[in-house]
Amino acid sequence: MIVQPDFRGTINAFLRRKGLFILVAGLACAVGAAYLLVTQPLYQSGASLVVRFDNNQAAPNIDRTMNTTQQLGSNERREIIYSDADILRSRDVIKDTINTLGLARVYPKLAELPIGANRKLDEAAELFASNLVVDVGLQSDVINVSYLNTDAVVARDAVRQLLDHFYGQEAAVYANPQLRFAEEESGKARDKLADAQKALTAFKSENHIADLQQQVTQLLLQRTDVESRLNTARGRVAEAEQRVGALRQLLKNVPDTVTSSASGEQYRAVDDAESKLDALRAKRNQMGTNYRSDSPLLQQVDAEIASLQAAAKQRTHEARGRSSTAPNVVHQNINTDYLRASADADSAREPERVLSAQLADINQHLASLESLRTKYDDMSRAVQIQNDTYRTLAIRYETARVEAARNAEKISAAAVIAAPAVANHPARPRRKLVALATLLAALILATGAVLTVEAIDDRLTVPRDVVRALRLPVLATFTDT
Questions:
Q1: Tell me: the pLDDT tens digits for 203-217?
Q2: Global pTM?
Q3: Any residues with CB less than 8 A from the CB of 135 and at least 6 apart, and which?
Q4: Contact 28, 445 (CB under 8 A)
Q5: Fewest Cβ atoms closer than 10 Å to its Cβ: which of 156, 257, 335, 414?
Q6: Can you give the C-alpha Rg of the chain in angstroms?
C-alpha cells in the first residue's frame, strides 16, 4: 500500500513508535560512550619547519665571477618543500626513528606480540605513519609535523628523533656523488697545468723570452730610434763625402806650386840706384844754375848719373829676368780642408756602421721572435686553457667538498621554528566532538529506524489510514475494551 505521509502522520508515527526511537538512539549513544571509554587517549606533539631559499644554503659562492643570485621559481620551491615532506614520511626515516626510541617504548603492546621482529617493525612503521601528519602550507614555506602516541613524552621524543633522522636522510639524498670524481679530475687538471707551465717556462728560457709582446714592442721602439739616428748619420756621411769630393775636385784645379817674378828684396838695389840717380839729377839741376855746362863738376855729376843709369838698367834687366817657384798656399789650405773633410767622413762612417749593425741585429732579433710567436702563442693558450679548466674543476671540487661537509654536519635549509613539546592534554579522542557526533548519529539512526519500520508496516492504525487506502468515509470506529 502506498501512503503519502504528511507532517501530522509523521508525528503520530514517531509517537506510536517512540519505544523504537528511544531504543535505537540509546544504542547509538551507548556505542559512542563505549568508544570514549574504551579508546585509549592519544597525546599529540608537533613541530614546524621553514625551508629557506634566500641565502643559498647548499654551498657558499666560491666562484666570485659567476652570477649565483638567480632565484628559484615558485614551482621549484614547491618541489623542494614537497620533497622534504616526502622524506619526513619516508619508511626508512620512520623505521630509524622507531629503532632509536625502541619498539617497546613506542608501541609496547605490539612489541609483546609473538611475531617476528621484521614484521613487528613493519607493522609499527605502518602504525607510526598512520599517526603521523606532515602538512605543507599552500602559501608558505612551512612544513608542520605532528605525531600521536599514548605517551606524551614518547610523542615528543618521536618527533625529535624524526627530525634528526630527516636531516640525516636529507644529507644522504642531497649528497654529491661526484666528490671523488671531482677531486681526481681537479688533480689531473692541476698536473696538466703544471706541465704546460713548465713547457712554457723552458721554451721562454731557451729562447730568452720574458714577455714576447713586450719585447717586440721594445725592439720596435729601438728600431725606430736606431733608424732615425742611422738616417742622421747617413746624412752626415753624405754631407762629408760631398765636401770631400768638392775639395778633391778643387785640388785638381789648383796647382800645388806657383812661379813668381823677383820679389821686393830683388828690386831693392834697383830702387837704391834709382834713388841715388834721382838725388844726382836733382844735384845736377841745382849745379846747372851755378856752373857752366863744361864745368868738370857738372861733367863728373853727369858721369855719375850715366853710371848709375847704366847700373840701374842692368839691375832692372837682371831682376826682370829672374823668377821663383814656391808652394801654392791656396793649394795647401785646400789640401788641409780636404784632409779634415776626409777625417770627418771617416768618423761619420763609423756611427753609420755601428748603427747599421745594431739595426741588422734588431731586425734579426725581431724576425727570430716573430718566428717563435706561433709556438709561443700556442703554448700560452694551452697554459690559459689548462688554467681555466683547473680553475673550473677546482671550484666544482671545493663546492662539492663544502657541500659534503655540510651534509656531514647535517646542515639543512629546513630550520625548526617550533620545537616539539610534551602535551598536557590528550589530542585524541576529541570527546566533545565525538559526543556531538554520537548524538547526531543517534538522532539520524533512530529517525531512520522509525521511518523504515513505518514504511514497511501495512496495517491500518487510524481512520485516516482507511480513508486514504479505500477512499471511503469512516462511519464508526471500535476499540477493544
A1: 888 888 888 888 888
A2: 0.46
A3: 143, 144, 145, 146
A4: yes
A5: 257
A6: 70
**C-alpha to C-alpha distances, 421 to 49, 80, 197, nearest whole angstrom:** 14, 27, 62
Chain mean position to CA 407? 27
The Cα angle at residue 385 between residues 383 and 386, in degrees rounded to 5: 65
142-149: strand order across its sheet = 132-136, 142-149, 43-51, 414-418
Residue range(s) defining the domain that contains residue 295? 257-327
347, part of any domain: no
> How far is it, in rounded angstroms, from Cα 247 to Cα 242?
9
pLDDT reading at 385 higher than 90: yes
Tell me if 168 sits within 8 A of 92, measured CB to CB.
no
Taking the C-alpha atoms of residue 265 and residue 319, their distance in angstroms, rounded to an integer, is 10
Give the pLDDT band (50/70/90) at residue 299: confident
- What's the grid cell of residue 107? 608501541
**Cell 671550484, residue located:** 395
The three three-digit cell numbers of residue 292, written as one number: 857752366
Strands 142-149 and 43-51: antiparallel
List, for residues 246-257, the tens digit of each pLDDT value. 878 887 787 777
The overall average pLDDT reported for the chain is: 79
pLDDT of amino acid 150:
86
CA distance 97 to 102: 8
- Residue 6 shares a structural domain with residue 79: no
CB-CB contact of 305 with 280 (8 Å)? yes
Nearest to 163 by CA among 226, 105, 252, 85: 85
Last residue of a domain, one of 127, 158, 174: 174
Query: Would you state the pLDDT for residue 128?
Result: 92
Which residues does 207 contact at the CB level (< 8 Å), separation at least 6?
368, 372
